[in-house]
Specification:
Oligomer: single chain
Shape: flat
Radius of gyration: 36 Å
Structural class: mainly alpha
């Protein structure tokens, strides 16, 4: 039976809240969560020597490309389902199949919520349209790419802006910064004391000049005449006492 709009549409605020929740669930899975799930799968389905951290990081990058759109929630459910039902380490396609029904249901709920919202906005022409939800991490990734590709500013300024964005992105994703950003910021931290020392020397010289100028003009500031008093003319001959 085909789905159709209900006679009474839900409130506009509820529709917008539902869409925001669904968009948050569909946000790409974080690298840290994917690495944590892969570690659990490996311990449960591939017993053996402990994996090297670089190996785990490389595996996480591959799985993010193939299953990153599942989001953290479905990654957790698929990991639990694989541990409970699989006898070997699943491949990415097999991993997605474990939650394919829930992934399709989430997409269908999103589509229907948007249809309900469109119909509700037609009922209330004065209502503002819902803004498309853009995760903060996605905004920072787009900004980082733009900063790295911007050749209109000097390289030092470009790398400074990009490294600050990479730092914010790493904090949100709860991971270490990329090596190029860490090295750039470490180099600036090393050079900072030298710049402060030069600034202190210049500041001391400037303060000495200002102090000399202040002493030079101090009598004038105290209300004394800026030039010496004029010499009085000698008295007339008749005014000289005998």
């Amino acid at each position: 039976m085909a789905w159709s709009l209900p006679a009474a549409l839900p409130p506009l605020a509820d529709l917008r809240a539902s869409i925001a929740i669904l968009e948050a669930q569909a946000e790409g899975a974080s690298r840290k969560h994917v690495a944590w799930c892969l570690s659990k799968l490996t311990l449960a389905l591939e017993p053996g020597p402990k994996l090297d951290p670089e190996d785990v990081k490389f595996r996480a990058s591959i799985w993010l490309e193939s299953c990153g759109d599942l989001g953290d929630e479905l990654w957790t459910e698929a990991t639990l389902a694989a541990i409970q039902s699989s006898k070997w380490m699943p491949k990415p396609a097999e991993f997605r199949a474990l939650v394919s029904a829930k992934l399709a249901a989430r997409a269908k709920r999103m589509q229907r919520c948007r249809q309900l919202l469109e119909a509700k906005l037609k009922e209330e022409p004065g209502a503002l349209p819902t803004k498309t939800f853009v995760p903060k991490t996605q905004e920072l990734r787009a900004l980082l790419q733009q900063q790295l590709a911007d050749g209109s500013i000097p390289n030092d300024h470009r790398l400074f802006n990009a490294s600050q964005t990479e730092r914010s992105l790493a904090l949100l994703e709860n991971r270490k910064m990329e090596p190029w950003a860490s090295e750039f910021l470490a180099g600036r931290a090393t050079a900072q004391p030298q710049r402060e020392a030069r600034t202190h020397q210049v500041g001391a010289a400037a303060r000495a000049v200002l102090s000399t100028m202040q002493r030079t003009v101090e009598p004038w500031r105290a209300g004394e005449p800026l030039y010496p008093k004029p010499i009085e003319e000698p008295p007339l001959h008749d005014q000289i006492p005998e």
